[in-house]
Amino acid sequence: MIKKIALLFLLFFALQIKAQSIKVSSGKIERFANFNSQFVDARNIDVWLPDGYSKNEKYAVLYMHDGQALYDAEKTWNKQSWEVDETAGKLINLRKTRKFIVVGIWNNGLKRHPEYFPEKPYQTFDANQKRFISENLLKRKKIDAEFKVLSNEYLKFIVTELKPFIDKTFATKTNRKNTFVAGSSMGGLISLYAICEYPKVFGGAACLSTHWTGIYQNNENPIPNAFINYLNRNLPSPSKHKIYFDYGNKTLDSLYQPSQERVNKVMIAKGFTKKNWTTTFFPGKDHTENSWRDRLDVPLLFLLKK
Q1: 33 touches 44 (CB < 8 A)
Q2: Burial category of 237 from C-beta neighbours within 10 Å (exposed 0-12, middle 13-18, buried 19 and up)
Q3: Mean pLDDT score of the chain, rounded to an integer?
Q4: Neighbours of 37 (CB within 10 A)
Q5: Contact 186, 164 (CB under 8 A)
């Protein structure tokens, strides 16, 4: 028993050292390794704290998906990252945004697509449509077995387990006006789903290069229609929420314009205006962390501007 405890301690210590090795240009990272949940598999949580972080102040909170790609390009699979620490640190230091912390939630490899795919729209598909989606994702090696959506469980993990932990551990403003969620691609989808499903929790969502196609084609694809029908029924109140969309026109982003234009019409019909919603087109930008890094200041200013 003693040996087992000692081994667990050494593993924990090693993971903490690894987190400390993440290079940031401002602030610091605190890692909570293998954060347990009753809803989803354990995963790392990397929390970025700005320079001068103090428990005597209160901070807004930005929850971001794909946490392993947020801070240090030297630690990512493709040597690209959002460099959230650099952009957020500059905006805070220039007093262009309120002070905030960033909670980076690691994705779960082959369960990323199931955890980020909005479940309620998926449940509107018939058996043939579900089979079509599963086969497409298997062909692309985005899943390792038949597609089973886990996004409701993933959001329960964030809202009922992770958020209470963050609010207890750090000096946060816990209300909706100071709680935000952001991500790109499938992370954009789950961010939008989060603010629709939990409008009392999240006050704003940033959805970069939102993967409206769900799979990797526009032709004969039922997914965009399902998402748009869901938004027609479930968008939160424009008086209490802010939503940001963007997209480029290179690589995978080249698929998104038709669906995004339809979504824009829904936003207008539901009463969203430039005060609480924006869709920005970035010509020449592709579907990479470098592209999202280059424009990260835009959604951060939109959501968190003083």
Answers
A1: yes
A2: exposed
A3: 93
A4: 16
A5: no
SS3 161: helix
Model pLDDT for residues 68-111, shown as the tens digit of each residue: 999 988 888 888 899 999 999 999 999 999 999 999 999 999 99
pTM: 0.93
Q: Which amino acid is at 142?
A: K
Domain boundaries, the chain: 19-304
The Cα–Cα gap between 90 and 300 comes to 11
Q: Are 194 and 64 in contact (CB under 8 A)?
A: no
Listed range (9-23, 30-44, 178-192) with the worst mean pLDDT: 9-23
Q: What is the pLDDT of residues 191-248, one digit of tens each?
A: 999 999 999 999 999 999 999 999 999 999 999 999 999 999 999 999 999 999 999 9
Nearest to 231 by CA among 184, 274, 199, 275: 199
The CATH superfamily holding the domain 19-304 is Alpha/Beta hydrolase fold, catalytic domain (3.40.50.1820)
| E strand segments, 90-177 | 100-105
The answer to whether 255 touches 221, Cβ cutoff 8 Å, is no
Cβ–Cβ under 8 Å, residues 61 and 103:
yes
Residue 190's nearest CA partner among 105, 279, 287 is: 105
